[in-house]
Amino acid sequence: MNDTHDLAIIGSGLAGLSAALQGARLGLRTIVIGEFVMGGQIVNADAIDNYPGLAAGTPGIDLVTAVQEQVLALGVEFAFATVETLSTAAPFVIAGDGQHWTARSVVIATGGRRRQLGVPGESALRDRGVSECATCDGPLYRDQEVAVVGGGDAAMDEALYLAGLCRSVHLLTRNDALSGLKVLRDRVAASDAIRVVTGVRVVEVLGDDRVTGVRLAEGDGDDMLDLDVSGVFVYIGSDPATEPFVTALAADAAGHLDVDLRMQTSVPGIFAAGACRRSSSRQLVAAAGDGVTAAINAHDWLRSLGSQL
After folding, report:
1. Catalytic residue among 6, 62, 127, 137
2. 226 classed as catalytic
3. Residue 42 predicted with pLDDT over 60
4. What is the pLDDT of residues 59-106, one digit of tens each?
5. What is the β-pairing status of strands 77-80 and 30-34?
6. Is 136 a catalytic residue?
7. Cα–Cα distance measured from residue 44 to residue 277, given in angstroms and rounded to the nearest whole number
8. Active site residue: 62, 133, 239, 258, which one?
9. How many CB atoms are located within 10 Å of the residue 283 CB?
10. 211 with 127: CB under 8 angstroms?
C-alpha cells in the first residue's frame, strides 16, 4: 500500500475525530495522529449539557467513544505520538517520537493545554493535592474542603461536580465576579456547598508532602490570607497546543493558528480546526463543525490539484 495518506489529522479530540469521520466518508485514506489519551480534554468532562441532540448530563467519554467507534468503522487509521515537526511542502511530512508519516493534506486539531498558576508549591505538589481533573481526583476529597481556581465555565463546571462530593468548595477568582455562562452562575449560586471568593489571587500552594492550603492575596495589594484546603483544582484557561507549527504557519501572539473561512492556514493544504485556531468559540459543537469544514476543504483542495481520490 502507498505509505502516503490523503489526509493526516494531528490531534484526537472532537475536532480531529470529526475531521477523520468526514474525511473517511469522502473516500480519503485518513490517519489520526494523537497523543495517548483519545478525545482530548473532553474525556474528563463529567457531564455535557450544551451539545445539540445529546442528552443533558452525558459524560464526555461517552461522546468520544461513540465518535471513535464511527471513525474506526470507516477504516480510519490511528497512530499515537507527540508530533514534533511538520513540513510545509506537499506531500507533508509529520514526525514525532521517532516516527514519521506522509500525507497530501493535513488538519491540525491539537486543542489547548491548561494554564498553570506558576506559583510556589504548585509543581511540587502536583498529583499530591494539585489537580486539573475534578472527575479524576475529586473522589479522593470526599467530605473534605477544596479550592477551585478560576471564574469561567470550566471552573464552575468542576466546582459543581466537586460540590456533590466535598464538604465545601471555595471557588476563587481574581475578578470581581464569575465570568462564565449565566446558567452555570445560577447553579453555583444555588449550591450550598460552593463559596465564591472574588478579587483574590493564589500566590502560593501550601504543604509539604500534601496540599494543606493556599495563600491568597486580596486584589492587587499585599494583604495575605491563608485558606485551609486539602485539594486545589486549577481552571484558569488554556493556551493553544501549537508549538511545533507556529514557526512555519501564521499565528497570533498567543499561538492560535490563522485560518480562512475554509479552515485553511497560511500554507495551502494545511488546515486547522477547534481551539488551536484563531477566533474559536471553544464550544464542542463548533469544534466538530470546524473538523468537518476542514476535511471537506482538504478534499476539495486535493481534487483541485487533480488528485485521484
Report:
1. 137
2. no
3. yes
4. 888 999 999 999 999 999 999 999 999 999 999 999 999 999 999 999
5. parallel
6. yes
7. 22
8. 133
9. 14
10. no
| Total count of residues recorded for the chain | 309
Distance (Å, whole) CA 174 – CA 216: 10
Q: Provide the angle, in degrees to the nearest 10, between the axes of the packed helices 153-163 and 182-190.
A: 30
Specify the DSSP element, H or E, that contains 184: helix 182-190
Maximum separation of any 2 CA atoms in the chain, in Å: 68
- Per-residue pLDDT tens for 168-216? 999 999 999 999 899 999 999 999 999 999 999 999 999 999 999 999 9
Q: Which of 97, 136, 186, 226 is catalytic?
A: 136
* Residues contacting residue 195 through CB under 8 Å, at least 6 positions apart: 168, 169, 170, 171
Question: What average pLDDT does the segment 289-301 reach?
Answer: 98
pLDDT at residue 1, as a whole number: 45
Cα 207 to Cα 128, 146, 214, 258, 300: the distances in Å are 9, 14, 9, 42, 56
What is the pTM for the complete model shown?
0.90
